[in-house]
Known about the structure:
Layout: H1 2-30, H2 34-66, H3 72-83, H4 85-104, H5 111-130, H6 136-154, H7 158-167, E1 169-172, E2 175-178, H8 179-208, H9 215-241, H10 248-262, H11 264-279, E3 287-290, E4 293-300, E5 304-309, E6 314-318, H12 319-324, E7 328-329, E8 337-345, H13 351-363, E9 376-382, E10 387-395, H14 403-419
Antiparallel strand pairs: 1-2, 3-4, 3-7, 4-5, 5-6, 8-10, 9-10
Helix pairs in contact: 1-7, 2-3, 2-4, 2-5, 4-5, 5-6, 6-8, 8-9, 9-11, 13-14
Amino acid sequence: MENQSQDFDRVLMSVDEIWHLITSFGVSIMNPGWRQNQIIILLALVVVAWVLHRLLGREIDRRVRAREGWEKWKLRVIVQIKRRLGLICFALMAGLLYQIMQQITWPSRSYLIGLAATLAVVWAVISFLGRFIQNRLLRRFVVWGMWIYATLILIGLGDEASGFLDDVGLNFGDYRISLLSVLSAAVVVGVLFTGARFISRTTASRIRSNEDISPSMQVLVVKAVQVIFYGLAFFMGINALGLDLTGLAVLSGAIGVGLGFGLQKVVSNLVSGVIILLDKSIKPGDVISLGETFGWINSLGARYVSVVTRDGREYLIPNEDLITGQVVNWSHSDEYVRLDIFFGTSYGCDPHVVRKLAVEAASGVARVLGPPKTPVCHIVGFGDSSVDYILRFWIRDPTGGLTNIRGGVYLALWDIFKANNISIPFPQREVRVLEEQD
């Protein structure tokens, strides 16, 4: 109870010191003098910067719209510059005026102008760097926190503000969490996660561009890099908060056991995903069949595999199903796929001619491969009303579809059989209607 009373007294003292400095500055600028003159000059510079922002912004829009073929990153940079054009103009004008006044008058008569120019530059730099943070809420929190912290440091209130924030906190036994530690940890975590995201993206792009690494190993290495960097960012943020990581070992072990029982399927899918990546059974771009699903693998995730079908549907298949179920990988060892179609002709047609015509018809289809994987045709049986054949041919692009290539070969058979008087028998039935007898 006594510690809480002391903390409350320190908070009141810090607030009183900050309020005294603010009121003293306010009173000083109310009295005529150079401080008041500097404030008037800064307000005039703000108005001029706003006018320049409007005029130059329109000119930039006009020039950018007149250009075509610009890369996206250039357009994004121009957009960010245009949004902060007023702040940039203010910083340039205030900095130039500060340098001039330093030469022609006493330094104290341009102190506030130099401080405003420095603040504008710092704010602009922080705003540009904040664009690397993708999460909007986290970006705003980090940017505003850095703005406030930089402003307090530059105007000489950093120690008072830090003392005030450090005095506001809660005690948990021997451990104390203050508002300053929470804000510092949040900013540190935001910066660290942004850096981890940037490094992991850069590393991932370089790994994917390396043709010596197989696609499955690329996915595995990228996931490992992301886990390592994001894990380091998280633990460094926890350490910045002042938490003892060794004290969390028992708690994390208990939580891990509970999650192990409650999330068995999730853990099973995660482990199955690692196994799939290690044994290279499937990889991005492979064409697979799993039950009624036929398509090519779009991406490998930690929990599921994305399979895109010919009709544009994207199936998210759990990794466990690919490990425990029967999967047909059409392009596992190579990209060649053999397809079979069956047909029959009447007994009056010469089978030698039929086989020759069938091979010729299949060879004329665009996606069917030629030598050394030339189509072949064999007799497989003598049916009730037809001689049965099997026509086998190879393709190397199963992602282009299987039904359409089969349909193309059937159509080619129809055309060549019709041109050479080869008949395809079909069942014929005779129906007799008997008169009823009384």
